[in-house]
Write a structure and sequence with these properties.
It is built from 2 helices and 9 strands. The protein has about 120 residues and is mostly beta strands.
Length: about 120
Amino acid sequence: MSVRPKFQVLSLTDAAADKVRQIVERSPTPIIGVKVGVRNAGCAGMAYTLDPVATPEPGDDVVEDKGVTVFIDRKATLFLIGSVMDHRTTALSSGFVFDNPNQVSACGCGESVQLKPAERAPA
């Protein structure tokens, strides 16, 4: 009997994993990871969210990648399937970015994105 590996909603780059590790280690209160979600915002319609997690919520997906734990808000799962979470630093900004195959467009200022739910794979 073969066991299928658990499906992972998103993956992390080394830079994203390093930043999540720093967030967990430097948190003033004990946390076990971060939670990625989406919310209605901006001119394109949605924005990514990132929050510390002390206690996971039932139903959230769990991504364990490169030694860190990222929780996915269950309402955001279909919008994040296949995404790669990265952390980039430029001369003007520093933050998490998402290479998301479900992103249709983004606003000019980069604050919000338009996302579509992932399509179901054929059975």
